[in-house]
Amino acid sequence: MMASKQVPPLRFVRSVLKSFMAESGLEPRLLGPQLRVANASIGKVDFELDITKDHTNRLKIIHGGTIASMVDLGGSLAVASMGLYATGVSTDLNVTYLSGGGKVGDKITATAICDKMGKTLAYTSVTFRNSKGEIAARGSHTKYVTHAWKTQETPFVLPEGIEIGEDE
Length: 168
What we know:
It is a single chain. The protein is α+β, with helices and mostly antiparallel strands. 25% of the residues lie in helices and 32% in strands. It is globular.
């Protein structure tokens, strides 16, 4: 389906995630179909990961690198939730681990927020909760978005030829 009009934030963010999974080397291999966007509104994205063995360390709990990768992707999706299809490049990423994130079979949930969007930089934060509802980790991700702004004439309009993501 060709897109030429604005689409709602949830469909737009799911379209960006679909592009990451089709075009990137890391996200489809590390996170794959186990990662889903549950909800999105302007400036906020809720997503979740069903933890599999591929996401864990030798202690059989979710690997810190998996969470760090989800801070990276979550920050990008938060930028997308502001209407940018091109989500910029990373300038800074930080993760603080607070509680165990989970083991194989558990689900870790996350909320990514675009705290501030400028013409040059976007500042995002991501909070992770384990299956017990405890804060497992929090991260921040700063993105350089100058070139992303140059490629987006109207927010929430997908580039020509891009499939619109599903509603559910």
